[in-house]
Specification:
alpha+beta; 220 residues; binds zinc ion; six-stranded antiparallel sheet; 4 helices; 13% helix; four-stranded antiparallel sheet; 27% strand; globular
């Protein structure tokens, strides 16, 4: 749980991400994005790509860089070349944030017994990056699963638990380079990760605008 105040002098509402849908936005180096769990208990699959699409946020490289499984406030998350991409600058969600579970995909829902189309984080990722001209990857990278609870017991067994993120809680990430941030309010409604009632909920995205030039430069 964070003890730091939210420093947000120029916060503006960017987008409301409906439960089960995806969204992508370009962010500049230094820009901060507030991912607000407006209704509570909603998992948000989170990816970052470099502007040329060649590198992406990597959960395995991030675990190695951090020396642990779950990221915390002030942690730097790295790409597949071990270069910093995102920093978690604020977190009042009391969540552990999973890095182990792959994003849900159509096959996951078929294996759970669902017949016919079901929205998924993989499809949300692919739809979200398309308007930006990014090539369709052969493999969608593992996401940072914000607000997702995946405890590991003493025997190494994983379990999927409902998110504990309270309504109105947030994670603030800072882009450490210019990048494309991709978010999916996970559509999982067959396994109780998005609250015990398995009901995907909306997420609000706020952005802090960055100064393009410093006051000193403006005065020149
Ligand atoms: Zn999902």
């Amino acid at each position: 749980m964070s003890t730091q105040p939210i420093h947000s002098p120029a916060l503006r509402h960017e987008f409301t991400l409906q439960g089960g849908t995806g969204f992508a936005m370009k962010t500049l180096a230094g820009q901060r994005v507030h991912i607000v769990n407006t209704m509570g208990h909603q998992v948000v699959d989170t990816w970052a790509l470099t502007t040329d699409g060649n590198q992406c946020l990597s959960m395995s490289h991030t675990r190695m860089a951090l020396g642990r499984i779950n990221p915390r406030e002030n942690d730097e998350l790295v790409d597949d070349l071990r270069q910093p991409m995102l920093r978690i600058v604020y977190d009042d969600s009391n969540s552990t944030h999973d890095t182990l579970i792959p994003p849900c995909d159509p096959q996951r829902y078929r294996l759970l017994g669902h017949e016919g189309h079901h929205a998924s984080c993989v499809d949300n990722f692919l739809m979200a990056i398309t308007p930006y001209g990014y090539p369709r990857p052969r493999h969608v990278p593992d996401a940072l699963n914000l607000f997702m609870e995946v405890p590991i017991d003493a025997g190494g067994e994983l379990s999927l638990k409902p998110s504990v993120a309270p309504a109105g809680s947030r994670v603030v990430v800072e882009a450490l380079r210019d990048l494309l941030l991709v978010l999916s309010a996970c559509p999982q409604d067959l396994v109780a990760i998005n609250g015990a009632d398995k009901h995907p909920r909306l997420i609000d995205i706020f952005v802090e605008d960055v100064k393009i030039s410093s006051e000193a430069e403006v005065l020149k």
